[in-house]
Write a structure and sequence with these properties.
single chain; about 180 residues; mainly beta; six-stranded antiparallel sheet; five-stranded antiparallel sheet; 1 helix
Length: about 180
């Protein structure tokens, strides 16, 4: 059974340290159990699969009504977090975490924490969300916003047209920013 620990840099982000069973045939691991995160109902709603070539950066994105749970079965990514929740003790803090083949963990990302990743190698990301895709709950902030000071470790990422147009935090209307911390 995985051990769940808080990611101390950003309140509410949790790391599932997964148990890996290996033998000469390969390996097996449980990547998610809803009981690991009792603070959220976790009805099985949607699972997504993303493949990225090395150098691709996706984000920063945030939601008002959805939590994410990420696992990387192939490759390595560097996740970036920026806490946009005004009453969080880590408000406006940013942090990064590498996960993937060399750090086989799952990552729980609560409502109001902006998140994204850069693929350090060709990588596959699977992620569970607790609400169906809703374009009105897809929000973005510029990956290189100086106010957030995310230490991506990359200068010329490959970005989607959408992520190229994400605004700086200062340009986002207050009603589009996260409200005080909800149960997540």
């Amino acid at each position: 059974m995985a051990q769940i620990r808080d990611f101390e840099a950003i309140q509410g982000v949790q790391i599932a340290e997964l148990d890996v069973w290996k033998d000469e045939r390969g390996q097996f691991l449980e990547t998610f159990r809803k009981e690991w995160f009792p603070q959220r109902s976790w009805e099985r709603v949607q699972t997504n699969h993303s493949e990225s070539q090395a150098g691709v950066l996706r984000g920063l994105h945030y939601h008002h009504h959805q939590v994410d749970y990420w696992y990387v079965p192939r490759g390595t990514i560097r996740i970036a977090f920026a806490d946009l929740r005004p009453d969080s003790p880590t408000y406006m803090d940013s942090a990064v975490l590498e996960i993937g083949e060399t750090n086989s963990v799952g990552v729980y990302i609560p409502v109001g924490v902006a998140h994204g990743f850069v693929a350090l190698t060709d990588a596959t990301l699977t992620y569970l969300v607790d609400n169906y895709y809703d374009g009105t709950d897809e929000n973005g902030v510029a990956w290189d916003d100086p106010q957030l000071n995310v230490l991506w470790g990359i200068e010329q990422p490959i970005l989607s047209p959408r992520d190229q147009q994400n605004p700086h935090l200062a340009a986002i209307p207050p009603e589009r920013l996260p409200t005080p911390i909800a149960v997540s």
